[in-house]
Amino acid sequence: MFRQLIIVGIVALLGLLVGTWWLDRALDQPLAVPVEGYQFVAGKGDGVYRIAHKLEEAGVVQHAIALRLYAKITGRDQVRAGEYALVAGDTIKTLVDKLQKGQTVQYRVTIPEGLTLAQWLGILHAQPKIDRRLSLNFREELADILGLAADKLEGWFAPDTYVYS
Q1: How many CA atoms lie within 13 A of 51 on its CB side?
Q2: N or C: where does the chain have the smaller number of CB atoms within 10 Å of the terminal CB?
Q3: CA-to-CA distance for 17 and 12, rounded, in angstroms?
Q4: Quick one: which of 90, 93, 91, 96 has its CA closest to 42?
Q5: 59-102: per-residue pLDDT in tens?
Q6: CB–CB of 93/28 below 8 Å?
Q7: What are the CA-CA distances from residue 146 to residues 22, 142, 149, 152 (Å)?
Q8: Cβ-Cβ contacts under 8 Å for 101 (sequence gap 6 or more)
Q9: Which three-class secondary structure state does DSSP give residue 89?
Q10: Closest by CA position to 109, among listed 41, 155, 165
């Protein structure tokens, strides 16, 4: 009986050592980023499990289980929604870091001084990643959202370079 316990203990210890070695290698292995600046979207409510599965299907992550285990073991399994970019040399560790910190892709739009609200809207509509929700009756819709009169909107928006995700 004592002999069987020792054998079970040795097998369990060997299993733990091999599992730790495998996980350590998987964490430091560069991701298979197909193109420089490969992007993926973490949707609202997506967890590490879903993202790991998506990236494994895309061939970016070789072992989704390593990603899930690392995130769970380190307590960094919370994901912030957004669009993420991966570059050559990124690993599971850097990926988890990006997901937890919300290091999403940032876009810029510059609104010069002296433009009308209609010109502002034209610039914003030309941006590929901005959700276009305002219709042709944008003055009334915007005034309603802001609680202002439709003819008093000019001057409420500051010209600047805006950064968005």
Answers
A1: 29
A2: N
A3: 9
A4: 96
A5: 998 888 888 988 998 888 888 899 999 988 899 899 999 998 98
A6: yes
A7: 55, 6, 9, 11
A8: 80
A9: coil
A10: 165
What are the backbone angles phi and psi of residue 122, rounded to the nearest 5°?
-60, -45
Burial class of residue 95 in the structure, from the number of CB atoms within 10 Å of its CB (0-12 exposed, 13-18 middle, 19+ buried): buried
Report the greatest alpha carbon distance in the chain: 89
For residue 47, the one-letter residue type is: G
DSSP-based three-state secondary structure for 131: coil
Which residue type occupies 160?
D
156 to each of 8, 150, 151, how far by Cα in Å?
73, 12, 11
pLDDT band at 26 (very low <50, low <70, confident <90, very high): low
Dist CA 37 CA 10 (whole Å): 45
Kindly state the tokens that stand for 118: 């209609």
Residue 140 is which amino acid?
A: E
